[in-house]
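Quick one, probably user error.
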């Protein structure tokens, strides 16, 4: 259902310039594509979020939450309903205690994953370096169980803080979180429905005491390796496809001879074939056509069905 006029008025009154209507999602995705969000709100803080969720619930509206848009592929048609992103009030990172020799660090879901990595390095806590160079927010990283060959969110997380669809704060224990490769299952009991999902507001990570200089040196080496093997400074959503079991999507696309393949400005990166990049002014439809070509060729050549890793809201 379309957002009613009185609700729009309330959004403008409550959130001022942080609430925008018809906001192009291309401005909020690292891929730089995506049509307008019916309403887009940068929610400033927890009281604002609780109030917003409660009002949306009462009004029977649906909502979505995005992080920093680094793993998002939004269609040219845009997104209906309310699209929220978490603002400044959700970026805190701090030490909250110790448990059996492990150090517990809480990060707000709106903090960047790289800020969390820097925090760990500064304090000499080891265990976050797997995430060095992964863009995006903590909330986004948790939702997609972000990771590399060196580890993933599921290896470190001990609990989550959410706001439920009833606008109530709740904690979820690690034991109740069902992570798998690049995914976190959304049990309705905790995460609500796809139309009215719970919102992750913070996460707790268990790290180990270590040596700051050594951790910093390791982080630098990892970042350098990443810079050498992945495209840098271009519009991308990271790896576009999941790695099929026992194989690398990038290697398959490369071996199929598809590096450099392009549809207008949507391009298979010549640096790393699992990066489909926006080389200028690509549209979402350009990526749609490119993805079909890549999937088709990989299927024809290797008999492997590639699955998207990027999130495609609205599908
Ligand atoms: N390869 C090629 N050609 C290419 C790309 C890769 O031959 O164009 C080969 C590499 O030489 C290597 C193998 O494929 O032998 C694996 O490549 P890489 O080490 O780059 O790892 P990946 O499996 O392609 C995964 C993650 C990346 C993460 C890297 C590094 C997925 C889908 N991708 O990539 O994550 O940065 O490992 O740990 O799991 C992301 O999630 O957005 C992402 C980029």
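Nope, works fine. Designed sequence:
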């Amino acid at each position: 259902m379309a957002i009613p006029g009185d609700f729009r008025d309330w959004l403008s009154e409550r959130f001022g310039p942080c609430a925008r209507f018809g906001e192009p999602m291309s401005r909020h995705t690292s891929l730089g594509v995506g049509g307008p969000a019916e309403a887009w709100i940068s929610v400033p803080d927890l009281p604002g979020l609780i109030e917003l969720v409660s009002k949306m619930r009462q009004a029977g509206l649906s909502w979505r939450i995005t992080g920093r848009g680094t793993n998002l592929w939004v269609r040219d048609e845009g997104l209906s309903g309310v699209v929220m992103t978490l603002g400044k009030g959700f970026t805190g990172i701090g030490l909250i205690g110790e448990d059996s020799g492990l150090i517990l660090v809480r990060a707000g879901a709106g903090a960047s994953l790289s800020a969390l990595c820097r925090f760990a390095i500064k304090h000499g806590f080891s265990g976050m370096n797997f995430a060095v160079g992964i863009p995006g927010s903590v909330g986004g990283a948790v939702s997609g169980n972000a990771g590399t060959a060196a580890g993933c969110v599921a290896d470190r997380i001990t609990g989550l803080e959410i706001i439920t669809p009833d606008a109530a704060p709740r904690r979820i224990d690690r034991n109740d979180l069902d992570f798998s490769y690049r995914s976190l299952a959304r049990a309705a009991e905790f995460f609500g429905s796809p139309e009215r999902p719970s919102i992750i507001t913070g996460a707790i990570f268990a790290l180990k005491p270590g040596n700051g200089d050594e951790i910093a040196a390791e982080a630098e080496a990892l970042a350098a390796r990443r810079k050498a093997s992945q495209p840098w400074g271009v519009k991308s959503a990271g790896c576009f496809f999941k790695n099929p079991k026992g194989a690398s999507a990038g290697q398959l696309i490369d071996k199929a001879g598809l590096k450099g393949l392009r549809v207008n400005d949507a391009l298979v990166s010549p640096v790393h074939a699992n990066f489909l990049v926006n080389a200028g002014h690509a549209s979402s439809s350009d990526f749609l056509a490119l993805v079909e070509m890549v999937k088709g060729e990989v299927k024809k050549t290797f008999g492997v069905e590639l699955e998207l890793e990027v999130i495609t809201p609205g599908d």
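The CA atoms of residues 91 and 111 lie 4 Å apart.
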